[in-house]
Amino acid sequence: MAAIEEPTKPTSLYDSPSASQPLLSNPPESDSSQYLQISYNLGDRPFKDIPILVLFLLFVLSSFGFGIFATFNRNPNYPNLSSYHYDIKSSNCVTDSPNWVPLYSSSSSVLKSLIWTLVATSILSLPICFLLLLLLKHYTRQIVYALLPFFVVVPIFINVYWFVACTINPTCSNDFPMVYRILVLIFIFLVIGVIVWIFIVNWHRIELTIKIIGVAADALSMNLGLFVVIPSMTLGLLVYYAPIVLFLVFARLNGKIVPDHHGSSGEYACVWKEDKWVPAYYALAILTMLWSAAVMVEGQVYVISGTISQWYFSNEEDDTPRRSIRKSLRNAFGPSAGTICLSGLLILVVRVVRAVVDSARQEDIPGMFNLILRCCVNTFLAAVDYLNKFAITFAAITGEAYCSSAKMTYELLKRNLLSTVFVETISTRLLAGIAFVVSAIYAIVACAILQAVSHLGVKTYLVTVAAWLLLIVVLAFFIHVLDNVIETVYVCYAIDRDRGAVCKQDVHEVYVHLPISRNHRSSLVTSSLLV
């Protein structure tokens, strides 16, 4: 295990001599000394999971290498395929003068309105996220209770509005019969009823969830630099994707124009035949892009976890440690790069397998063997999700390898009777509801403004939906960051609890009310059902 540093002066939970022992548990003597010293590792970290890092770099270099080859080896005659015809004398495809198709540019009021609306939404999304963060920090309870009714009111309003609007509009009435409109209306009302039932069932947890969100918002407000670094990582991924997409386009141009004999008519036609290696390169490049996306997501979680954990274990009450984000970035792209690559690979495999299982479920393949196999696969995927949930967070704190982080996190939560289910199922859904309500209110206001200043007719709703989708994507990113902060603080609290120390008193005052989990196997089953 890497050398782990303790905070300078943690506050003891108790005045008794047993304050240094883990709470609510009696771990073996060999493990107690190991876990008592867990804290943020400020020292030099060794490189971990190097084979996976080498494999990832091999995928990337192969994608770029073969892509460069495809670029220089492309056939320039592919764009003129339509000008080729079969020559009987030479038994080959020959070309005529290429026909150039002129390109005309056109503009419309719909396109202009769409562009301006999306630009305005992009500009306004930043202050909306910042204002929402400040409100969640200082007025969490008021915001949550004020928006809770809108979780039901807004869907009901939208449901009734589209039904009435479609009934009044002659074109929509003809294309969408009344029977189907009523069925959709009833279905949406049933979904709204399920949402209400979820709130009623979890109402006793709302107050604790509000406090947890408030603590996370306070921690995030102390590290606002994450709102610059995390989007920059996403932008960097898009820049990284650009040449690969270009290589995929050029790879399609690797081939030749050959005559093809039509059996029915007996005539020959000129067709494009790709080189045999092109499909394999497509598979390689697409897998590299998917793995890179998963690595970027896990890298963002790592940076968030490392930054927040430095804030948590620091002794500075009103300020954050200096260069905490820079340290997290250096560790993410340095010693822990292999760990992040391994976590991203596991997430990619889980999602691919889950997609295959869902596809098989939709096909409804009969047989007891298929049913047993599906249950085994779902159990395996739930176990991987369970172990992976806090593995990257723990690795960001300690610098441990992926497998060690997953094992140590599980043992840490198990010894302190904590679970991984509660925080995710309640706070995430509540934050998602807030994001939906805010984006829906913005969409309604945007629609009213567009109808007042433009004459787009029915197309106004298309522009409004585009603006709503853009804002909800931005807010989803904000919720993703805040959710990772909640999980990081949760792990830091578990470390404090295990060591019998209090680094952030306000955090302990909230998280001490979390329910006790005495059976982690049942938590695993519960998490698989909730997913």
UniProtKB/TrEMBL annotation:
Comp. bias regions, Polar residues: 9-32
Location of region: Disordered: 1-32
GO molecular function per UniProt: transmembrane transporter activity
Transmembrane segment boundaries: 52-72, 114-136, 143-162, 182-203, 224-250, 281-304, 332-353, 365-384, 430-453, 460-482
Main location: membrane
Protein's membrane topology: Multi-pass membrane protein
Assigned keywords, A-Z: Membrane, Transmembrane, Transmembrane helix
A Gene Ontology term for the protein's cellular component: plasma membrane
Localisation: Cell membrane; Membrane
Pfam families: Choline_transpo
Function: Choline transporter.
Similarity comment text for this entry: Belongs to the CTL (choline transporter-like) family.
Name assigned to this protein: Choline transporter-like protein
Lineage: Eukaryota, Viridiplantae, Streptophyta, Embryophyta, Tracheophyta
Gene: LOC111448556
